[in-house]
Amino acid sequence: MIIKGRGYCCSKSGVKVSKPTIDDQKRYRKLDARTGCLACIYFNADKEGKNWEVTKFVEEHNHPLASENDKHLLRSQRSISNAQASLLKNMTGVGIRTTDAYNFLVDEVGGVENVGFSKTDAYNFVQRERKALIDSGDAMSLSNILRERQSEDNMFSYDIQTDEMNRLISFFWIDGRSKIDYDCFGAVIIFDTTYRLNKYNLACAPFIAVNHHMQNIFVGGAFIATETIESFCWVFETFLRFVGGKQPITIFTDQDQTMTVSIERVFSNTRHRLCQWHISKKAPSKVPAFNHDRCIRSLFYNCMSKCESEVEFENSWSDMIRRGNLGENRWLQDLFKVRMKWSTAFNKERLDLGILLTQRSESANNVLHGCFKATSSLVECYLGLDKLTSSWRRSEHDEDFRCKHGSVTLKYSDCLLLKKVSKIYTRKCYSLFEQSFMDGAVGVCIVEESRLTDERILYVLQHSDIANNVKQWFVSFHPTNYDADCSCRGFQTRGILCKHILRVYNHKNVTQLPEKYILRRFTVSAKKDVYRFKTASQDDFDSNLVFRSHMMRFTYDLTRRVEDCKIAREYVLSAMNDIAKKSDEILEHDEKVKNGLFPDNQTDKGNVRDPPAMRRKGRSNNRRKSHWEKPTQRNSKKLVFK
């Protein structure tokens, strides 16, 4: 058997001798690499491929041959190795531009001629990898990834919302680690939807919390197509469903009316706070007097965060209106109506960790801006946010290591109170506590002391600033159990004792911080024993759903902590087997009792209580919105306050 073959000395894409032509729109056409060269070789080979016979050979070319330095321009000489492909994929995956990744490879090998492929090949490779992620369709590929994550993580939850044509319009996800983080640090949440850089113009809506190192942590995320009341309600309801119905104490958002209505409907027990940064940024354009009158501007900022009481806020606000003759300013009138959402003077009893801005969420958006492009797919958006979450968790792990294997340098080494607190709090939280202690010791003085009827002592403290403005605070102190309460309500809002109480503690030589003033969320072991302090006798466990959720979180957290230690794994497995055997014995005994095999008097049924009361679904009891609060459509299709 004879096999006939044919070969060309000139590949149709190897030689490019024609020059580019420019059309009427000044755009380059594709280069034609075919020159009509007749150089070729014909051959015959036997079946075994051992004997070859050249039947025709044309050696002459009608074009110059490529030199040694130009061979990298020939398609037949270009290829991307596995190592180079892996490097390109990893570098572009973390947000590095393709051209920068290619230039890095060129510098590594000492020139373009040595890298083995062109910049166009690099772009084509990256584009092929992006298309491979969504080979079965963008939304379907995302659904497959979420389903795969759920199979790997039993506590991973997600939900997808589609329209009447079964097109994806919103999706939400939360993994097991985020659920545990929310149980530990979910009292204060930042929710922001300002980031929209993706292929479908979906709004990125991450739920951001703050951990015991005062770092950002991810406790859930969503992408929504439209910022409507229905969309936000779906996101918030899905979030609550996946975290066991636990509502945050405070949630910070930007000044969006649709978001306000949605929060009032879903988070009925949560205090909604507005971002002061958005308000202060808008103020100069809405109130021109702020641009040239420093006094008016100072009074406005005092109203935002420096007033100690509602009365002080009212006085400062009235003074600002009077000085600037701003009684007719509509924007200030509207802002005054929602003063409880943005002024700290009206939020002294709710924990907010001292957060005044949603810039923690916006910082996440800035990071995402480096990972996404206007053409990013849903899969790329999800994977990018997942990488950001992993980097945050790595930072938290590193800080946990520093707290466990290091000690804090005390500024007051002789203070017993600081020594004991430094072993309880994390490094960052201790620095905040120590700063409050120093501010109280240096800047606050006790001017009056009087005894109350219930054995408590009332201290009057005051502080004078540079302008000789004097402020007073009142601290009620019990000398036996060290119980203290301050008029500034710093502990109630920040979770760490204020400088006024610490000034009294220093005055009374208190060396032991009462247990009630040490919040678990600020301690080194904030996450270690998060599920151990509950017992089955608590009212919370009357619900099977709550019990299952609690046990899943407990075992998930325990598994993550022992998975790297063989001895610990074996001990946990042995203990779980013992628990399973004992549980089977209890269940068998309980079944015999139910079937009447044992006398009734041998079983103590306890007190039978009424079923738990459930809040009826229906119309909200919140007040109706006035005319100024009603949404107004803008060109950006985002509803905001005027």
Automatic annotation (TrEMBL):
Key words of the record: Metal-binding, Zinc, Zinc-finger
Source organism (scientific name): Platanthera zijinensis
Protein name: Protein FAR1-RELATED SEQUENCE 7
PROSITE patterns tied to this protein: ZF_SWIM
Ranges of compositional bias, category Basic residues: 614-627
SMART domains attached to this UniProt entry: ZnF_PMZ
Sequence segments annotated as region (Disordered): 592-642
GO molecular function (one): zinc ion binding
Keyword set includes Disulfide bond: no
Domain SWIM-type: 473-509
Superkingdom of origin: Eukaryota
